[in-house]
Amino acid sequence: MAAISQKGIRMAITVLASLPIFALYPFMQKYFSKGIMVGAVKIYPYKIL
């Protein structure tokens, strides 16, 4: 049986930890975009006199 490196274990944990995010994002996309729009600050250009 081959030895598993620390780097391989870290990569596997990273992939497994990111799977729920990628699985939920398509269903929650409208809420993410709505939150970005609500949090945006609209800046009006100043008139140069």
Describe the structure.
The protein is mainly alpha-helical and 49 residues long. The chain contains one helix and no strands.
Helix amount:
55-70%
Largest sheet: none
| Helix and strand pattern | H
By DSSP (H or I, 4+ residues per run), the number of helices equals 1
Distance between the termini: 77 Å
Summarize this, please?
With 49 residues, the chain is mainly alpha-helical. It has one helix at residues 6-39.
SSE diagram, text form:
Layout: H1 6-39
Q: What attributes does this structure have?
A:
single chain, 49 residues, mainly alpha, 0% strand
